[in-house]
Design a protein that fits this description.
Largest sheet: 2 strands, antiparallel
Distance between the termini: 28 Å
Number of helices: 11
Radius of gyration: 39 Å
CATH topology: f41 fragment of flagellin, N-terminal domain
Helix content: 55-70%
Length: about 350
Amino acid sequence: MAITALSTLSLARQTRTSIATMQAEMQVLQQEVSTGRKHDVAGQVGSRTAGLLDLRNVRQDLAAYKDALQSQASRLTTMQDALGHVRTAATKVRDLALGVSGSGTGAAAATIDEAARDALKTVTSMLNASQSGRFLFAGTRFDQRPVQPADEVSPSGLSPNQAVAQVLAAFGPVTNAADVDALIDGPNGLASLFNDGYDPNGDGVPDAGNFTGTFFQGSTQRVVSRAEADVPITYAVTAGDQPVRDLLMGLHLMSALPNDSVPTDAYKRVAERGWQMVTSAMDRLVETQGILGLEEETVARTGDRLEIQSTLISTQIVRLEEADPYQTSLRLNTLQTQLEATFAITAKVGRLSLVDYM
């Protein structure tokens, strides 16, 4: 019967290899204890690796939507605030016009034109609000300032004030209430100017000085973004919408026709028509703010839902990737005991000598 024995050199090498293996495993376990995460996630998760990758991709998508939601919420809030300032500025002019529409005279009548000019400046500033380089009321042309300041020349070659003055000059003197109505509603009147139908030559080609290109440089096509893959968010207002056109028309009317430029009866009608335009515009802007408010609610609800989904997915990822602290500590203690025993045995063997037994 043959007896196979390991040589002293082979035994030493085997011991060193075993010690090195245990030390390497202990380092891995110590890392898992300190980080709380598996050292080799894919190797330890095994067949569930594909599912883990899917979870990570979903969490990344959710994070992108959450970042976008913050930007969308900020834009909607800015738009709401801007429209609130627009209504505040218009309210002062509306109240003055209401008081004057009954008499056509008085201290209020002498200040409406100045109040209308101040309101135009505020409305223009608010509707040119921007965020992160995007003009919020410019529709899909968000790189363009949508509202032309009243006294600045536009690409059409006229400023808004000059375009209004052109209509007034073409109409002639305003002497009574009927003239005021004709100036507004008649052929090539203010209404046609603010609805891109101003065509004094009658050639079917609108002349320079229409609303688009002179008063408005944006687009009336609404911007639509996504709060989530299947949740659209619509910014449901532009500076080219009809309520804004009516508001600007009413303010320009009262700005361009001060009370000392026309007879009292005519000015009563100017104040009355201006009041009607501004009031109608403000009422519809309130409705617009309500629509924006609904979009804000959608953004908020979507954000809450995404937060819950993100938490659930993160919990699943942690469960797959985290190291079991109990098992890790138990294995670490076991290796430590084995390593200590190996060192003790190695030291004892190293002290053995044949001389001691002779």
